[in-house]
Q: What sequence folds into this?
């Protein structure tokens, strides 16, 4: 993998990050539903899901702000 500094590379990196966060959130949600008997496990899975959802929301806001800035430039 080469290091690119173009806007397209940044968008691709954020897209990859967002896809990973979506996967993490879905996996944590499914595991959470299957691990209902282990209270500590449930807490950790819920925390992982929360952090993935928060990061996904933040990344989405960054992308939307960037897109709006580009359109107004």
A:
């Amino acid at each position: 993998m080469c290091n690119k500094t173009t806007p397209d590379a940044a968008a691709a990196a954020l897209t990859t990050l967002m896809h990973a966060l979506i996967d993490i959130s879905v996996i944590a949600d499914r595991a959470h539903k299957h691990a209902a008997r282990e209270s500590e496990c449930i807490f950790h899975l819920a925390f992982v899901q929360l952090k993935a959802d928060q990061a996904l929301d933040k990344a989405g806001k960054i992308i939307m702000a960037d897109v709006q800035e580009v359109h107004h430039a």
